[in-house]
Amino acid sequence: MAKTQLTWYGHSAYKIVTPGGKTLLIDPWITNPKNPNAEKDLAALTQVDAIFLTHGHGDHVGETVAIGKKTGAKLVATMDLAVALTKLLGFPPEQATGETTGFFGGRVPLLNGDVISTLVPALHGGAIAKDDTATPFLASPASGVIIEVKNGPCFYDTGDTDVFSDMSLVSRFNKIDVMLACIGDHFTMGPERAALAVKLVQPKLVIPHHYATFPVLTGTPERFREALKKEGCGAELRVMEVGQTIEL
């Protein structure tokens, strides 16, 4: 049986290819400063079935609109964020309907049952603007996302967030195989607070992201590793290289 493939493009941008051959993107800022192959990677994204967007900040929206227009990918996000993307940024509205958008807690079947998505809370902002001169639009609270892959792993992407006690509820409803966790500090939880988040969620595997993209993001995988040990977390830590693809 085919395995699930996970690619990290740097910052918070991921690609998941399911055993059924569906291509999913999460927060696709492909052209982030840490990706030396950004143009090539962007050009290679000719088949994308769904784009998962945790919130409206530019370092997560990235190339969502361009990729959506090119591939016909469906948008998976809160309904408020979907409205902002279609009205302000020009994402095709027919690809951002109630079939794939929702709010916290609802399980949304996608792609003929190949994937089930659940949006969950995150402690972060959600402002989105058309450009640097426009008045920001508050596109609902930020979210994390649970992605259940048929015949594959269950992912939990924290989005941008601080740790909070209700993260423990994630594993009550879904056994998380892979947790994608922000660790950069300053705008999100740093390594020590992220380690506590891992302890609450209890995934099998944790992959850090949203660090070192800018100097202000000072969290490091090394600090995260030490913090996980101090918290007594049993999760395996896997640090991915930008552009790396792993099989799960």
Write the layout of secondary structure elements.
Layout: E1 5-10, E2 13-17, E3 23-26, H1 38-44, E4 50-52, H2 58-61, H3 64-71, E5 74-76, H4 79-88, E6 107-110, E7 115-121, E8 127-128, E9 137-138, E10 143-149, E11 154-157, H5 170-173, E12 178-182, H6 191-201, E13 205-209, H7 221-231, E14 236-237, E15 245-247
Parallel strand pairs: 3-4, 4-5, 11-12, 12-13, 13-14
Antiparallel strand pairs: 1-2, 1-15, 2-3, 6-7, 7-10, 8-9, 10-11
Helix pairs in contact: 6-7
What would you say this structure looks like, in words?
This protein has 248 residues and is α/β, with parallel strands linked by helices. The protein has a single domain, classed as Metallo-beta-lactamase, Chain A (4-Layer Sandwich), CATH 3.60.15. 22% of the residues lie in helices and 25% in strands. It has helices at 38-44, 58-61, 64-71, 79-88, 170-173, 191-201, 221-231; strands at 5-10, 13-17, 23-26, 50-52, 74-76, 107-110, 115-121, 127-128, 137-138, 143-149, 154-157, 178-182, 205-209, 236-237, 245-247. It has a seven-stranded mixed sheet. Helix 5 links the parallel strand 11 (154-157) and strand 12 (178-182).
